[in-house]
Amino acid sequence: MNRRSFLSSAMAFGGLAALHGSGLAFAGDRGPKANAVGRVVRTDGEWRRRLTPEQYEVTRRGGTESPYSSPLDKQYARGTYLCVCCDLPLFSSKAKYNSRTGWPSFWAPASKKHVREHEDRSLAEVRTEVLCARCDAHLGHVFDDGPPPTGLRYCMNGVALKFVPGKA
Predict the structure, then answer these.
(1) What pTM was computed for the model?
(2) 44-165 fold
(3) In sequence order, what are the beta bridge partners of 105?
């Protein structure tokens, strides 16, 4: 390969990478229609500027807030819980319950399309991590010891959520 063809290939590849990063779909990509929630991608510096240090530690680095530290644990008004990073509606107050764990808990997300689950082996036990489907924010974990009708307990970090009062 000569220098000219190398540079042309590199520029073409760079252009495709830039288009992909801008959110435009490629042929064969699932594209924005396949994931109706879209994607929010920011640099580490952008996340640090937008979030408080505690929000950043939990949502971007997978941390956990102290139990009983979030006012959202005792929030039972009607409304919707949004992702603190991207405002995606994650949970409804209709699915909230008092799990007595010290973290806001829900028996189901507002939509299964709004959360992603990932196997978490960071501790001695295997857990299921819950992430925002739009921005990959770490939200908490889901356990199979919740109430009916699902039997699930979505144990969320309150600092990863934003409560908006109103219709649930």
Answers:
(1) 0.77
(2) 2.170.150
(3) 97, 155
